[in-house]
Specification:
This is 2-polyprenyl-6-methoxyphenol hydroxylase. The chain is α+β, with helices and mostly antiparallel strands. Helices cover 33% and strands 25% of the residues. It is built from twelve helices and 22 strands. Mean pLDDT is 92; it is low at 409-417.
């Protein structure tokens, strides 16, 4: 490395923590900036796809997170009324070692945060970032709520999510569109009768979707958990709470009676948290002295399960670009090129497929229910669906030189120096 940079990473989500580890490993001076007094995970469970796992493998953390998660071999969905197959994607179409990993967000956070702590990376807590001001010499100052400033930094990495206050600093800001459907979710013990290696869902048209995702163990717990989720319009949330939990449980059981032992763990509406979604894609995920990673660069519906995985790829691509270019400006251009094709492909796919599974349309789910079963039996289609779900369309691992998607050798156990 020809130059050592001062780098600020705003946000302690997966993208921010991974970026901090990658930059520190490369010898840069890194400061993590977090608005909470103590960093903490936000959100429900998720699937780590081969793409995200490849980044964690590069960090030497894949074995640790794999021990805490649940191997996912299949995504399976049925029409609640008809029992017909609406979704059936098997990772095995990509090879015997292929799979995803269902994880508790707390487990992913703990795995990354423990590595950050072990590396002695500086963390400024209780700092709510409100702006990033380009200064002289190409450096950037972070403005915090209350008037305090941090810096200057050679590079600011924005990992603050879709609602980041720094989005106006992008070279070409993008308009955000709030999606009509979100979801309520809770983590509950996985009950007998559910496949511990499958994401299972039930649908009624596209307006009702209920799902169960095995996510392994929460930090400090022994029981295998599942993320239980239910599609809901954000503007209907207050009405949902007013109806009462019992009425909602009856509705869920009407669609999927087997969920009764999961619902038994829910006795307060506040146990179910509301998640809302936005769609936007920055044409260039960078500005003057600032790079955008994860949801602030590209947010969308979680239907394809790519959010955390795309964020981890962003962090790796950015760190690689900084290592390979002569200065920060050139590195930001390279970062944008490295991620452009893959991000645009999956943003477009998400925008295309989401209305078939979450919308008020009656026609689209009818088309879905008529076309998916026969298409799934066409030779080769199973592989294409698995590639899409695994995040491997566009060959991002080759682009980023991250190695094979499903290596046979054991993952390394610690962050490499």
């Amino acid at each position: 490395m020809s130059r050592r940079y001062d780098i600020a990473v705003a946000g302690c989500g997966p993208a921010g923590l991974a970026a901090a580890l990658l930059f520190e490993r490369a010898g840069h001076r890194v400061t993590l900036v977090e608005r909470f007094a103590a960093p903490q995970p936000l959100g429900s469970g998720l699937i780590l796809q081969p793409t995200g796992l490849a980044v964690l493998r590069e960090l030497g953390l894949a074995a640790t997170i794999s021990a805490r998660g649940s191997r996912i071999e299949r995504l399976y969905g049925l029409g609640a009324a008809s029992g017909s197959v609406v979704l059936d994607v098997r990772y095995a179409a990509l090879g015997p070692a292929a799979s995803g990993l269902g994880v508790h967000r707390g487990s992913l956070f703990e795995t990354l945060f423990d590595a950050v702590t072990a590396r002695g990376i500086a963390i400024e807590t209780g700092c709510e970032v409100v702006d990033a001001e380009p200064g002289s010499g190409g450096q950037t100052l972070l403005h915090l709520q209350g008037g305090r400033r941090l810096g200057p930094f050679d590079l600011v990495v924005d990992a603050l999510g879709a609602r980041s206050p720094l989005l106006g600093r992008a070279l070409r800001p993008a308009r955000q569109r709030s999606l009509g459907y979100g979801a309520i979710w809770a983590n509950v013990p996985l009950a007998e009768g559910f496949d511990p290696h499958a994401l299972e869902q039930r649908y009624r048209r596209a307006s009702v979707m209920v799902g169960v995702l095995p996510i392994g163990r929460a930090p400090g717990a022994d029981a295998t958990l599942a993320s239980f989720f239910w599609s809901l319009k954000p503007d209907s949330h207050a009405g949902w709470k007013a109806r009462g939990l019992a009425a909602w449980k009856d509705e869920v059981l009407g669609h999927w009676p087997q969920t009764a032992p999961l619902l038994a763990h829910l006795d307060d509406a506040d146990q179910l948290l509301l998640a809302t979604y936005r769609h936007h894609t920055l044409p260039v995920p960078a500005g003057r002295g600032i790079a955008f990673v994860g949801d602030c660069a590209h947010s969308t519906s979680p239907q394809l399960g790519q959010g955390a995985n795309m964020a981890l790829l962003d962090a790796f691509a950015l760190a690689s670009a900084v290592a390979e270019e002569r200065d920060i400006a050139a590195a930001l251009q390279r970062y944008a090129r490295l991620r452009r094709g893959h991000v645009r492909l999956y943003q477009a796919a998400s925008r295309l497929f989401t209305p078939f599974y979450q919308s008020d349309s009656r026609l689209l789910p009818l088309i879905r229910d008529r076309l998916v079963p026969p298409l799934a039996r066409v030779p080769g289609v199973d592989r294409q669906l698995a590639l899409l779900v695994a995040g491997l369309y566009g060959d991002p691992l080759r682009t980023l030189k991250l190695g094979p998607a499903f290596p046979m050798e054991p993952a390394r156990a610690s962050v490499q120096a």
